[in-house]
Write the structure tokens for this entry.
Amino acid sequence: MSVLRAISPDLSRIRLVDQDCLSKRAAQIREALLQGLERPFKHLIDISLGDAHRGGLQPITFVRQVISACLYPSLLDSGRLPTDVKSRARNLLKQCEGESVGSYTATCGLPKIQHSLSEFISRRDRGVPSSPENIFITSGSQQALMLVLRLFVHGKGSLQTGIMTPVPSSPLFNMALSSLGGAVVPYHLCEEEGWTLRLDEMRRALATARRHCNPMGLYVINPGNPVGQVQSQKSIEDVIRFAAEEKLFLLADEVYQDSVHDPTAEFVSYKRVLHEMGPPYSNTVELASFNSASKGFMGECGLRGGYVEFVNLDSAVMGHIYTLFSTEACTAVMGQIALDIMANPPRSGDASYTAFFEEVQNRRNTLNNNAKRVQETLNSLDGMSCQPIRGGIYAFPQLHLPARAVAKAEEAGVAPDLLYCMLLLEEMGLCVGPGSEHLQRKDTHHLRLCIATPEDTLQEVLERLSTFHLHFMRLFSG
Amino acid sequence: ACKCGRSFTSPRLLPPTRISPRTRSDVDEGLQPDAPPGAMLARRTVGLVSRGGPPLTPRSPPGRSVQRMMAEKVLTVDTMNSCVKKVEYAVRGPIVLRAVQIEKELKEGVQKPFSEVIKANIGDAHAMGQQPITFFRQVLAMCSYPELLDDDRFPEDAKGRARRILQGCGGQSIGAYSASQGIECVRQDVARYVERRDGGVPSDPDNIYLTTGASDGIVTMLKLLVAGEGRSRTGVMISIPQYPLYSAALAELGAVQVNYFLNEERCWSLDVSELRRALADARRHCNPRALCIINPGNPTGQVQSRQCIEDVIRFAAKERLFLMADEVYQDNVYAEGCEFHSFKKVLFEMGPEFSSTVELASFHSTSKCYMGECGFRGGYMEVVNMDPEVKAQLTKLVSVRLCPPVPGQALMDLVVNPPQPGEPSYSTFIRERKATLSSLAERARLTEQILNTVPGIACNPVQGAMYSFPRVTLPARAIREAEERGQAPDMFYCMKLLEETGICLVPGSGFGQRDGTFHFRMTILPPTDKLKILLSKVKDFHQRFIQQYS
């Protein structure tokens, strides 16, 4: 027998991801199409992941120009690139040891970029101070989340660390938590009220959890993933008070902060609210806030640039975080550069300013239009309902499936919404994510669609989805 | 069929029961708010142990509970994961923090007996002035900004590589997530490279996992290996001296570190008899399951002979150990008569008795060798003879971190698929690679030579990798003074060296060494002129130090 057969039970507890199977099947179909096999569709559309570039949105030119000049500094001597691109690249190269993006950086990232980020945070938070030493640049926000979880999670039985996580959830967060041996403590967002956080539900969840584990942290995603809610300042205050009373460490996943579509909503960071609440909250509640270059107008998932800012952490703990993090050497420099540009974009008067501004504005308009259109179309379908998409890059409509469809799925041993997704993929060449992936209230079924795509792609997505939905409902009703 | 354990049927059919039902986990149960809590508790061995936390009164007035909260943080050294407390990492430890501080002081105009800090503590070639390979950077620049594909300054072969890599990316952008295991065409290129390197031994792209530097792969494999409690807790054999990533990861995972000592008298060679001793000792208190080898060695610079690798494989086979071969310095071999042999190649040359059973993971990276591109965090691992179910777990585990940085994957592709004879970039590429490697060989020789002229310093030949790890004899008074300060004697030595000369080295205690011996690790990466100055400064310092403490 294999030496490796007995692996840690924490790892085997990680759930198989339905999404992986769908993605693999999608890849097979794409391959089959390339080989000229007949399908009822010409090309496959995959909007199951939150990946803007894969969805067809173009990278921001300024970002890629700066990176290319950093990669190949001979470009700095040519007329090929705008002057502000060149000066930005020169400045960044000066920050790198040996003036090469091929050298390691300090553990927490290039100090200059930590600085840019802290200024960005302060600007965003209307002057709330931010200190570069509290910022760790990471390989995407997921690595930052893992880092924090590694600090927390320990213990067995009733002492097992629990983290309160929203339902619908981010499957990756739950996988990370389970793989480290932590307990997922689910609290449900209220779909009927537009996926809001409700304190009574959080209290219920916490009380239940305290009977079998040791809840130490509270994970919130704002703006939401997969649900597009945007928390109000009041709601954030309530959550902070709750965390303070119940002694919970706050993990605020704010990677969609740049994507708010509802003109009546506004992104307010947990850090800003915490600060504005004043003592004793502002100087005691422990907070880790996460952001990334993968979402927002950048959409640079592949470069793996993210960061975490820590607030009110014990200084000895900070020392351990540093040591733990230093074993991973440093974050890929391209990801760090992307963050630098996100934090410090071209300014009015710079050569690239107009083009940059236009591209970003187009990107935002596209997302806003997509959010509106998805909502309208999905709500017009019988058997589907979609809460307002105030922010984020996903729609998470509920499927009201006929009993016969649910029975059929049970017979096949799959979640009903996975069945729906599989058929949608086979029949229409459209890959979306099943709600079962994100956990959801019992006996409800959902889909997750990424709306960060060009508008014509989205148009086609909605046409395929509508056609399929009608067909599916007719097939299983009566 | 889908490789993750479920299969899909042919199109246009409802999936039949082949699709296994969802495994219900604790997570799923926690989801049903209406389920009686007892149902969940009944399944736990520890029953209704009440928790020490605040009572669950419905909303106590904020004032009082907040006061209580203020007394103590949620996350303290006492409440955090205690394994994390044991993690140490010398390569970026206190001495490096002090070096950064000194650099800052120099910038602020503080007077020091030196004008710059020389960081010879870390294997970071570009930081020491090594130039990147032109071809690699040309391709990467075009991948980043594809409009450059029509630029005449770039040769055709570079354009071809860039197009191919972009084809492999989602939306043809390096800004899209790749598959967790890595971009398919890159994994294919890696497999072909491994086959070429190993004289035709077959390699399957499905066994290749692209990683964020080699470290990511090493830590992921260790995670898979660690299980059990008490005497059945996983033990992992690592060399002493070792690269501290291993000890740090094992500490965090709560695994048992099983030390085997390299033989300093015989040029840091690995003796199987020592492996046997270490294993027998360890079996009394844990369950040793893996053996880690770093070849060429870090920090010790030895290159294993083919015979030695064969002996290690036989040992692993007999004792049923999973082999982890850290081969990131595979191109860095300088000493005459030394040659790099991959564990995989030797394993397959030993015949099916071994090649079909011994489990092996081997690691490589873009950070070392002649490219030295640390900042890209590119790497891969190849797994051999891994149980398919475990491989499925491995695939799941890597998906938790989404994907390795795509520019690093692209660079890994170029390393394994460099310009070929006949292509326009070939001669430049060969020239650049050769210049770097032969200069490194010269610096390896120089380092050994000069250090050995210093009384009290003894340096083994730097056969490969990027470091010298000389032994320093310290006077008893220095050792006493260090101990009084609660410092390891070689840390005391290196700290003093840093303060007096600006040279930043890592003390041997950070890598592990035989009791009573002291070392430091110094990279051979500074350019030759600078290296000479550095070595003569170390020499002067050492002599002063000896005088001061005799």
Summary: Chain A has a mean pLDDT of 92.
